């Protein structure tokens, strides 16, 4: 068996809003073998940029498009192919969008491997510790505290026992920041509240916000600083009265390495659509070694939801699952199966590979570009 085709498809919603939500388009990677098997994966990045990394022709030995590196290879050799892609694309960048593109390929290879052996990916990764995981509804803030409270009530009424609010308009001023968190607490009542700042403050301001927000009993404060401010995160984590979470923007083990070595976070958020299974498994082991807590990041399509469930279920200390509740077609209609929490818990799939079937009619209706 060998890789015969690497297909990269770009899908986009008919209406794309100006907001921080990566479930409005999808870059879909489909790897097909000579015996008819297909594996699927996606990356959370600009779809056209990922597509360029995959489609690029040979330039020289360490600047080659991923497709040319993969054609003719045995798709079951996921570890070797990860390193072949890494070596062959070194001059594209080693902790950024190139790794995201590799993650989509890696996800598709593991999906294909699971289908080949008739096993779910979590079993190929060593086995799951959880059949289901408590989920939190992940949603953006409202325009103000009142609207945020209404959003919180909606998702508690829907059965969730944890809600996370994130990004804009947080960071404009202290008064609005406090109003948003106060409204969020009012909306979720005594249930678990998580706050995602969206990389908006300097280090000392972040500490003041952490101290202020601790009065509302938040479970964690996510991404208060720029993602590359490693020293700032280490300084903040040592002083914050609430746990500090980050990692969603990191691509691959080398991006996570300084955060892990500095013990800079309480919660390490790993996005499978930016890391793939091969590097996510490595990162999981390091997080467990240092006694921190793992969580997924997922704000894209059901492909990444399924991948995240397989990976997070193999983490001994998994305690929450990010469940995007944006009401957009890419999140809810791309797959035949529904991957969403019921009564606040989300089930880990047990079908071969990712356990996901694409809705091909939906794919055709939203296809912007395709390459082979």
Q: What number is the mean pLDDT?
A: 96
Instruction: Specify the oligomeric state.
Output: single chain
CATH topology of the largest domain, by name, is: TIM Barrel
Q: Number of DSSP strands?
A: 13
By CATH reckoning, the class of the largest domain would read Alpha Beta
Q: Count the DSSP helices.
A: 14
Shape: globular
Radius of gyration: 20 Å
- Return the domain count: 2
Task: Classify the beta-strand content into a percent band.
Answer: 15-25%
- Supply the CATH architecture of the largest domain: Alpha-Beta Barrel
Largest sheet: 9 strands, mixed
Based on helices, strands and strand pairing, what is the structural class? alpha/beta
What attributes characterize this protein structure?
alpha/beta; Enolase-like, domain 1; 2 domains; four-stranded antiparallel beta sheet; 14 helices; 40% helix; globular
Please give a structural write-up.
By secondary structure, this protein is α/β, with parallel strands linked by helices. The protein folds into 2 domains: 3-118 and 359-371, 2-Layer Sandwich (Enolase-like, domain 1); 124-347, Enolase-like C-terminal domain (TIM Barrel), CATH 3.20.20.120. The protein has helices spanning 47-55, 66-70, 78-88, 97-117, 121-124, 145-157, 174-188, 203-213, 230-239, 253-261, 272-289, 302-313, 329-332, 360-366; strands spanning 3-12, 25-33, 38-43, 132-140, 162-166, 192-196, 221-222, 244-246, 267-270, 293-296, 321-324, 345-347, 367-371. The strands form 2 sheets. Strands 4, 5, 6, 7, 8, 9, 10, 11 and 12 form a 9-stranded mixed sheet that branches. The chain has a 4-stranded antiparallel sheet with strand order 3-2-1-13. The model has no long low-confidence stretch (mean pLDDT 96).
């Amino acid at each position: 068996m060998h890789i015969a085709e690497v297909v990269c498809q770009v899908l986009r919603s008919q209406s794309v809003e100006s907001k921080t939500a990566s479930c409005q388009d999808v870059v879909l990677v489909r790897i097909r073998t000579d015996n008819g098997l297909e594996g699927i994966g996606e990356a959370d990045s600009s779809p056209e940029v990922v597509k360029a990394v995959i489609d690029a022709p040979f330039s020289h030995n360490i600047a080659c498009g991923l497709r040319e590196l993969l054609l003719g290879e045995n798709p079951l050799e996921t570890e070797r192919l990860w390193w072949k892609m890494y070596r062959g694309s070194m001059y594209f960048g080693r902790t950024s969008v190139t790794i995201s593109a590799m993650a989509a390929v890696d996800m598709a290879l593991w999906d294909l491997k699971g289908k080949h052996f008739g096993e779910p990916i979590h079993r190929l990764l060593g086995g799951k510790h959880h059949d289901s995981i408590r989920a939190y509804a992940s949603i953006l803030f409202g325009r103000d505290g009142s609207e945020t409270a209404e959003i919180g009530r909606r998702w508690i009424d829907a059965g969730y026992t944890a809600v996370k609010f994130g990004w804009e308009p947080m960071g404009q001023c202290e008064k609005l920041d406090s109003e948003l968190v106060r409204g969020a607490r009012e909306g979720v009542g005594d249930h678990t509240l998580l706050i995602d700042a969206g990389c908006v403050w300097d280090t000392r301001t972040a500490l003041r916000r952490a101290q202020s927000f601790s009065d509302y009993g938040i479970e964690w404060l996510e991404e208060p600083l720029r993602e590359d401010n490693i020293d700032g995160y280490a300084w903040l984590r040592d002083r914050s009265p609430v746990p500090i979470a980050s990692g969603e923007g990191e691509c691959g083990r080398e991006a996570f390495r300084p955060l892990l070595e500095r013990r800079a976070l309480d919660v390490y958020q790993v996005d499978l659509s930016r890391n793939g299974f091969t590097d996510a498994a490595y990162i999981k082991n390091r997080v467990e070694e240092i006694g921190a807590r793992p969580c997924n990041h997922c704000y894209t399509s059901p492909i990444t939801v399924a991948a995240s469930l397989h990976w997070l279920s193999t983490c001994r200390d998994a305690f929450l699952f990010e469940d995007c509740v944006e009401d957009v077609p890419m999140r809810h209609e791309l797959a035949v199966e529904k991957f969403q929490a019921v009564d606040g818990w989300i089930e880990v799939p047990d079908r071969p590979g990712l356990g996901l079937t694409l809705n091909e009619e939906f794919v055709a209706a939203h296809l912007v570009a395709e390459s082979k």
